[in-house]
Amino acid sequence: MEASPHERALLEQAASEALSSIASSQDQASSPRLKELLRYLEGHLFEQGLNADTWFRACNIRSHRVRASFREQLKTTPHAYFNKLRVGVAKNLLKDTPLEIWRVSQLVGYSRLESFDRVFRRSTGATPTAFRQKNQGTENRAPRRHDETLAPLRDWRRILISAETREFLMEMAEKNLKDYSLFSELLRTDAKADEGLAGVRKLVEQHNAEKVWKKLRGLRFYDQQLLVRLQITFQTTALFDLLREKSLNAGRVNRHRGVQLAELALASLDACTEALGDDLPNRLAQGWTCLGNAYFLATEPARAEQAFARGEFELERAGTYRDPLVEAELDVKKAKMFWYQRRYEEALKLVNQAIPILRRANRRVDYAQGLMVRAFIKRDAGDPGAAIEDFRKALSNINEKDQAYLCLSAQTGIAFAYSLAGEYEEAENALTRAEALCTILGNILASHQVQWTAGLLAQAKGDLATAQQLVQQARSGLIKLGELGYTAVVSLDFAILYSEAGRATEAMEIAVEALPMLEALKLSGEALATFELLRDAVAKKELTITLLKEVRESLAESQGVPPSHDRQDQGRG
Question: At the topology level of CATH, where does 446-572 sit?
Answer without folding.
Answer: 1.25.40
